[in-house]
Fold this sequence. Notes:
This protein has helices at 49-55, 66-78, 97-106, 120-127, 143-148, 155-168, 189-198, 223-226, 230-243, 254-257, 288-298, 300-308; strands spanning 14-18, 83-87, 110-114, 133-137, 174-181, 207-212, 249-252, 262-264, 269-273, 277-282. It is α/β, with parallel strands linked by helices.
Amino acid sequence: MNLNLEQPQDKRFVVDFWVTGKCDMECPFCYGADVPIKENQALVYHPTDETKMIAGSDKRRPEMSFEQTKDVILKLKNVGVDTLTFSGGEPLLRNETPSIIEFAHKHSMQIYLSTNGTYLLSKYSRIKNFISVLGLPLDGSNPEINIAMGRKAYHFKNIKNILEFFYNHPPNHILKVGTIVSKVNLDDIEAIGKFLFETVSFYSPDVWRLYQFESLKDGLATSDKYAVTDDEFLSVCDIVKKKFPINNISERSRSTHSNSYFFVTPDGMLQTVSDKHTSIADLLLTDENELKNIVEQQHSTVIKRASQNRNWLNSKNTNKTIP
Length: 323
């Protein structure tokens, strides 16, 4: 499968798909899927009896069944979605995720997998031929800073093991490493670059993506500890781009994140995000014609900005062929 990097940026239709809310990490600024359900008054949305039964509880966000997930993927494809980013929570904590990835791949969709890496190597053989991009997080150049950023103590070693594994077994897919820039690690960003690009035994990532800390969900309560100004963020991005000029480094500021993503929650809600996540359709109930109208007419700007936020793909460093 060829990764269609020549596709115009404003034509790529990307949706982030949270397959589970479960995660082995407890990052204090997470805005992922593991949050209590809040009924959407505009949609008169309530958890269905079926999804309540799957979860066993309606206190934490339930997951669609495997069959429901496949139906939603086909519905998204039929309204024009060509790329799915599978994330969570930690997507590989869900046993069915490799099968979900394979199903989407078989229906000619490009797959990004965003994982914290804890379970990657144990499941890599199941997914490696179906993904176009693999995203991993690294928020410090040593274990201590990663822990200060909220990662578990084992996270740093896991990322090292993965980069060493790829050094010995180069991947056919794109490898992206993402770093959240905050007050805690602001002075460590250059050291992270050295760690990624100058460690002899590592496979250097094809893309290093720097994300400005955002006060969303859990991040609202930790903003004082983590938030950096726009000037601080852009300054450190400029420093590492000059320090590592041959590498593909790109940034995403708070302003470029707003109104630029579609998310599918584990229980099937389609959401957008500005200063908060807003549900716009229940994918278990909305038919394809209605969904097409919602995303194309009411949210055409989100489609364009979501695609532009993946412009880091348009680089000679990411020109790979997926088998």
